[in-house]
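Bit of a strange request maybe. I'm writing a small parser for structure token strings and I need a real example to test against, not something I typed by hand. Could someone generate the tokens for this chain?
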Amino acid sequence: MCESFYHSSKLLYSPKRRMEPSQCALAANFTNQQQTAEFTIANEGVGDMTDSTKYRVYANASLVKEGKVKLQKGASTTLEMPSQVVTYRLEADQVPHHPGQSRPTVSLQPTSIPTNLPSMAMPMPIDDFYQDDADAEVDIYCLEIVDSFDPNDKQVSPRGISSRHYIKAEDELEYLIRFQNTGTDVAYNVVVKDTISEHLDIASLRVGSGSHPFTYTVTGRGKPVITFTFKNINLPDHKTNEPGSHGFVKFSIAQNPDNPKGTVIKNTAHNYFDYNSPIATNEVTNIIGDTVLVSPVAVAVTDCGVEEPTVAQAGSTISLCETSSAVLNGNQPIKGTGRWKVVSGQAFIVDSENPGSAVQALGYGETVLEWTVSLCKKTSTSQVKIFRYQVPTAPFIAEVPLQCEGDALRPLVATGTNITWYSDAVKKHKLSTGNEFTPSVTSSTTFFATQNINGCEGPAKAVEVKIQPKKIEIVAKGDTLVAPPADSYQWYFNDEPMPHAKGQKLIVKNSGLYKAKVVTNGCESISENLEHTIHLPAAELKVQPNPVSEALSLTYASNATGQVQLIVRSHLGIQVMHFSAEKSLTVLEKNLIVSSLVPGMYVLEVRLGREVQRYKFIKL
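Reply from user aminoacidic:
Good idea to test on real output. This should exercise your parser:
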């Protein structure tokens, strides 16, 4: 905890003397929801800076940036850095010939510290460093807040960095001596004696404030003694009035100008209460040494008056087909911090500070996202558009009638947008584009087409190109031959058309060569000759009608061929008619005219070699 006191006797600027008209002043605070430490360097003087002034930024005791500024009257510049668990400190020099001894400095400590943070990683106390109170009219003092302490103690500011309490050779030391009446009665007089180190310049002594009126004297040389006398202080004891039992005195003193590095400056005070023995305070120590350490982590300090944010780049337009998520492609800022936001449309940004964040729950249509890179109060913005489209339906394809092999094929016609033709349903083998596609095939083939709208390709629609081949196959199922389905049929036996054989199926009666000619949708096809052999288990004779008036229709089936004798006998066995016929096929079909026979019973006898078949019939 630090307190500042300013007295009205501050030295004023005078144009008659060679005095710097500017006044460098520093301020610090957290911004961006405690995520950014912001330091301001301002010129609060009566004129412009006649020369530039240096500044230094520290993280704990590590120098992380130094630079120069030159500001006009009333102007300011800002430095920013990311919040960390460190004490940030900004130091700046006054321009040469500035009146007084001011060395501006300001510090920022984190507002919260993790509970499990090791003591070695704790932010350094502000009082470890010097305060800007070298001017007589300024008094700044920082006290560490502790649970309990020795009521008679001594503190020094700056305390110095690290456990060795290193300070700079030019640092002025301010001492605070505190005392408390822990006796059982009122202390009427209190005397505080402090022996000054030989490394301090007694001539620079500036006596500060005290809790009660006091006088002081300086005696001795080499190690002079300052004596502070609180006469008639009437300090109550701590049990009677604990708050009123305390007192203090402060003074500042500069170092000798020639103190070398390694000089140890020690100090102890003694408190006297009336005629009691003195109570010694703790000893405070400072060592002249290196107060600038190497930073264990890189700290990016931004000079807001000079530096510009990285130009934001939100990436290229994203088009989505049905899916509702995407990955953004903003640029990683070199200077500044980036953040995404939804400008229009519907979307959920998973990590708004990640340039490559995922974005989910995208609505259909256009969504606009903006990537903003901020540095200090400067920004650079870039927008990206995300289009989410529905997948289109499959196109409509007009059916094509059956076509003849060898004829010029008709084109396939699809209705839709940006049609693509494929040879497979999984769309790996692209054939053509456009609403019309003329295939080049010689047999029936299935093709597939899709339409593409807004870069989204829909499902494939199948269409079959049916081609009637010039050659067909006939199949034998026993003694039945079957042709493929067609509009009309013509069967051939031994290359001769068979009268009345015009169906899809043909029952074979004779061994020989068979083929079929078919017509389908105007396409003529013919099969190869199929040799078919009839194998009868026994000869068979069929005669009709019976009884008969005019003629008998005879069908004689036999594996044998040759001259067939046809004999008609009366019921007494007398031959009444005789015919001969050449049988070259399996089946012999013959009509016998019997109209000249008198009515009665007869026997038809068929002879072929050793085969004899007899059949009785009645002549009407």
